[in-house]
Amino acid sequence: MPTADQNDILFDRARAVIPGGVNSPVRAFKAVGGTPRFIRRAEGAYFWDANDKRYIDYIGSWGPMILGHGHPAVVEAVQKAVLEGFSYGAPTEREIELAEAILALVPSMEMVRLVSSGTEAAMSALRLARGATGRKHIIKFEGCYHGHADALLVKAGSGLATFGHPTSAGVPPEVTQHTLVLEYNNIAQLEEAFALHGNDIACLMIEAIAGNMNFVRAAPEFAQRCRDLCTQHGALLVFDEVMTGFRVGLNGAQGVLGITPDLTVLGKVIGGGMPLAAFGGPRAIMEQLAPLGPVYQAGTLSGNPVATACGLATLKEIAKPGFYEALSKKTQSLVAGLKAAAAAEGQPFNADSEGGMFGFFLMNELPQNYATVMTTDNAKFNALFHGLLDRGVYIAPALYEAGFVSAAHSDDDIAATIEAARQIFKASGTH
Ligand SMILES: *Cc1c(COP(=O)(O)O)cnc(C)c1O
C-alpha cells in the first residue's frame, strides 16, 4: 500500500480555506500542473516538503535567501531581536543602521524609506514620482512586474500571464489609462512614446535586468536611451530592483549597467526572508514624502525591528569581499553545465546569468522581450520542471520566472542538478 501523499492532503485542506490553496498565485503550480509542494523546513541550499522529500532549492523564496536558509549569523540576529520585542510603532536605531547600510551600497540613493513589501515600495515610488513631477503618465514595459498595485497591473509578467489575462479584474480602466506599456528593448517605441507624451510622463519604471519574464537583460543602448530620454523630458527614471538589488551584484542592475536612476525600488534580499522593502533616491525628491512633503505614505509595520535585524545581518554577509565573485562563479558553472548537457543531447537551449540570478530558455536564442519568452514550448518546459522535481531539484514552477543560486549551494549540488537535467534532456532526445 503506497502511503498517502502528504502534499495532496495539505493541498485539499488548503483549497478549502485559501483561494487556490495558496497565498500567492504562482505557488499553485497552475502553469505546470500537479500538486504544489508544502514546505516543512529549510536549511542551507535545501528544503523538505510534507513527505520529507529533499529538494535543492533554486527559488530561494523568489530571491531573498541569497545566503541559503538559516544562515547562523542571520538566525542569531533575528533571535536576539525577537527577544527585544516584535514591533513598537516608534522609530529605532536599527532602522537608521539599515538605511545607512543600504545607502552605502547604492550610491544613487541619498535617502531611503523602508516599507514591508515590493508591491508597496513600487506603488509608493510611483506616487512619489507623480507627486514630485506633478505629472500623470507612467511608462512600464511588457513582461516587467512591479507588484500588484492597480496602475502597474497592465500586461504584467508573472502570475497574470499564467492565467491568460492581459490585466486583472477589479482594476478600473480609469486607473490604468495613464500607464503606457511598451515593448522591452524596443528603442523606436520608446522614442515614439516620449515624442508623443514626453512632457506628461512622470516616470519610466523598469526592471533593468528583468526577472519576471524569465531572465532578460535590457540592452546597454536601450537602458542608456531610457536614461537620456527621461533626463531630456524631466521624467524620473525608476529602477525596480526588488529582484536584482543585492542579487546580481552589490550595486544591483544599476551597478552592472553603469546607469544612475533617479529612484530605486528594493525588496527581497534586503529583508533576508522577512517582509521588508524600500525605495529611495535623491534627497530633494525623497523630502517630498510625508511628514516633510505633500506625498503621503505610511506603514504600521514599516521598518519592523525583527525584519530590519534580518536584513542588516544579511547585508553584512553579502558585503564581505569576494561574496559576489564566488556566487557568480557558482551560478555560471550551473548555467554552463546546463548548456553543455542540452548540447550533448541535441536540445535547443540557451541560458544567461548575473551574480546569483539566472534564466534558461528551451530555444537557441536569448529572448530580448516578453513575446519571445512566451514562445517557449510549454509542454517541454513542464516536462523538464516535473523531471527535475522528481529528482529533487526545485526550480520556479513557470517558464517566465528567473532562478536563484545561493551561497549555500555546493559544487555537488550544482553537479547533481546538471546531471538531473541531462537525464531529462536525454529522455526527451530527438536526435
Ligand atoms: C517581487 C517583485 C516585486 C513585488 O514584491 P513583493 O514583495 O512580492 O510585493 C516588485 N518588483 C519586482 C521586480 C519583483 O521581482
What do you see in this structure?
The protein has 431 residues and is an alpha/beta fold. It has 2 domains: 6-70 and 321-427, Aspartate Aminotransferase, domain 1 (Alpha-Beta Complex), CATH 3.90.1150; 72-318, 3-Layer(aba) Sandwich (Aspartate Aminotransferase, domain 2). 39% of the residues lie in helices and 15% in strands. The protein has 15 helices and 16 strands. Strands 4-12-11-10-7-5-6 form a 7-stranded mixed beta sheet, sandwiched between helices. Bound molecules: pyridoxal-5'-phosphate (PLP). Pyridoxal-5'-phosphate (PLP) binds at residues 117-119, 122, 145-147, 207, 211-212, 240, 242-243, 267, 277. Pyridoxal-5'-phosphate is lined by residues 117-119, 122, 145-147, 207, 211-212, 240, 242-243, 267, 277.
Beta-strand percentage? 15-25%
What integer value in Å does the Rg equal?
A: 21 Å
Span from first to last CA? 40 Å
Query: What is the CATH class name of the largest domain?
Result: Alpha Beta
* Overall pLDDT score: 94
Number of domains: 2
How many helical stretches? 15
Low-confidence stretches: 156-166
Distinct small molecules bound, one entry per kind: pyridoxal-5'-phosphate
How is the largest sheet built, in terms of strand order? 4-12-11-10-7-5-6
What structural category arises from helix and sheet content?
alpha/beta
Largest sheet, in brief, is: 7 strands, mixed
The level of helicity is 25-40%
Overall shape: it is: globular
Number-wise, the strands total 16
Using brief descriptors, characterize the structure shown:
Aspartate Aminotransferase, domain 1; single chain; Aspartate Aminotransferase, domain 2; binds pyridoxal-5'-phosphate; 4-stranded mixed sheet; alpha/beta; 431 residues; 7-stranded mixed sheet
